[in-house]
Amino acid sequence: MRIDRWLYIVPLRLRSLLRRDRVEDELQEELQFHIDRLTDDHIARGLTPDAARAAALRALHGVEQRKEECRDARRVGLVEDFVMDVRYAVRTLRHSRGFAAAAIATMALGIGATVAVFTVGNGVLLRPLPFAEPDRLFAFSHGPRGIGINGPSMFDRDYVAFTERTRVVGQLAAFSTGTSKLTGSGDPALVNAGSVTVDFFSVLRAAPAAGRGFEHGDDEPGRDRIAIIGEKLWRNVFGSDPAILGKTITLEGTRRTVIGVMPAGFVFPRETDVWIPRRITIVPDQERLLSVIGRLNPGVEPAQARAEFDAIAPQLSQRPGPDPEAWTSELVPLREFVVGDVRRPLEIFAISIVLVLLIACANVANLLLARASVRRHEISVRLALGARRGRIVRQLLTESLLLSTAGGACGLLLAHWLVPALLALAPAGRIPRLEMIRLDSTVLLFTAGVSLLTGVLFGLAPAIRMTRTRIRESLLPTGRAFAKGRDWTRAALVVGEIALALVLLTGAGLLLRSFARLTAVDPGFRADHVMTMSVDLDDASYGTLEARRTFHTRVLEELSSVPGVTSVAAINWQPLGDALIVGDFHIEGRPDSADVRIVDKPAVSPGYFATMGVALRRGREFTDADDEKAGGVVIVSRTVARLFPGDDAIGRRITLQDTPTPEDWLTIVGIVDDVKQVGLAEPSHAAIYRPYRQVTHPFFLGHMAYAVRIASDAVPVAAAMRDALRRVDRNQPTGAIVSMSEVLDHSTADPRFRTRLLATFAGLALLLAALGTYGVLAYSVVQRTSEFGIRIALGARRASVVWMVLRHTLILSLAGIVIGIPGALATTRVLESFLFEVKPGDPATFAAVAGAMVAVALLAGALPAVRATRVDPLIALRHE
Description:
Radius of gyration: 38 Å
Shape: elongated
Number of domains: 4
Strand content: 5-15%
């Protein structure tokens, strides 16, 4: 079609839509003009005025027909019909406010929960990383399985070797993260610091919003005392100082010049506040783990990079090791590195919420089917008057879409409240990319799509069923053929709801049972009435071993004077903390101790085991006499003690060195219980404890956690503990001050979050399934009013009437359980990695869930059953 024709037609059609009344008046005037001309022509031929007008009308073959032809020529009929359908649907729903409110509320719950989960998943998983060409960024990992603490990692010497050998990776950068002490800028504070190679920002193609990034040579000694800070730190600590560039800050006792400020939202890696340059130097007999990222060269496909890395990796791992097969190499997209292991739970939650949405759709479909019995006479009349079935289906679908659209709008508002609640339920720091989680155009489009899809999903089948009614029977006063056909459809929907709810309830039941067993695990210590405070000492202020020993001794003395404290102690890596020191050891006279080659090696103060409530099984605790001048002593856990015949470990000697000198042999003076050092779901670790005053390397005393046992949890000691630390060093920031009960709770935060969320979805599904069951039974009782009245009139006991209704309930619930159990067996296997001492097919859980489903179904059927017994036979028969 030519452009000039479009320029003519488009305005004409818009005018027909926007000025419909005026166009109709003009059409009427034009047709009247033609009628008048034809009438005048016939009068001129000798006809009477009435006969002439009748002849003119016959010549037009019907005025209304000609109007329809003109309207069709404008090709706006579909839009006009849609507008008419919407108006009619609004009027119809206005007269059925209770039905409309129930349907909209049901869809709002389903769509709102779905949109909330999608909003989180979209921000975490779907949004592109805020870097140029993020699909070309990858993280590289090479090392023993499970050694990466913060995801994919690589030893420093392997990173250097890979940098020299790769041909397909254009740029590589390495980094590590941790906390650093920031002083000289107000109160001392701990900030998240990233120690990065100078190519870090170049690899990401990220530039500071102010100042410059790192350049080659910035990592050389003397030039490396610089830093780039994040926008959040610049805003919160430095008050958005526009003159921040060139000023100095003190990190870990080292003064650094600020050379740049990163833009808002740039927090890679892991909520970093400040970045400092790092120089990779290879130290003999020492290896450090680094996170490594790289950008592929232009034109290089990920498959090529993987092939090259697989070829280079075996050359990197040729070093002494117990099992070469235990080494693994992988190349993962940077998105997966950022997301970590949160993808699987989010996918499971997404599947769960889709099941809830399907149950909500089934519920609304049931409501529509129930309403159909009221409208069957209306539909039959319209069909009898010549309305096309397709036209009526379209009208009914318009009503369904109107309901789903209103439900989607309410659901979007609900999601606005649910997203913060969902994030609040998640453990702190567990969900990455929080800055990307928001309601945006993508979420709005998703909501619109879900609303339209659900409108068709729950509206199409009822619409088709309603137009298949037998007109003659439906026009009779007591015609019930339509209703009977509907019962089976509604019952099938309820069975489907029960089956889907069973799947969700089984998953929630398995997680709940697993969580109960996890929280029942004995951690090996008593967490009640214990508060902890951690510190990290910098090398500038406390670089020597003696300085660190003195600092810890003074802090312990100050803490012991805090009112309400009954005992104090210290450990460099507390149980269920974020880090750990491990290594091997040797038993005197037994060179091979391969059964327990790797043990924890914490350093503790005297009184630690009594303070933490770790049971001392034999021997003694450390005392103040176990200092640097005394002979070396250790206390071992029971797993280590079992290596000695008859657990006779007291007095035996071990060493923590591979080539020990006479001074390196340590005497065992006590045996304590094993402690859950890493997590409650992990095996208890074998451990060898040393007095902190006998530790010979400053690094092992750089981090320390102080534990104080108080008279009761109600004693407010947190502020007093902080004051005690300030009396020793006012510039030393404190880490977290938390109770061990909170630490214990934090260790189960992930399974608690998963259990709560899935249980919430399952509870919502159960509620919707119960409402659906109630709706079907209530409708069935109404349809069978006459039958119940006759039975009661003939002497039927009310208990038998109740059983008739409840039997229907049992049939529906048992059918749903029979269908749902195979589905639950198949789908709950995805939860296997999240379960603790529970199998996906746990019979006790399945039996409990099935029993709960039957109980809820019977409860939903109780009210309709009672109503059935209250039917008045006279009223029922008169109604018949």
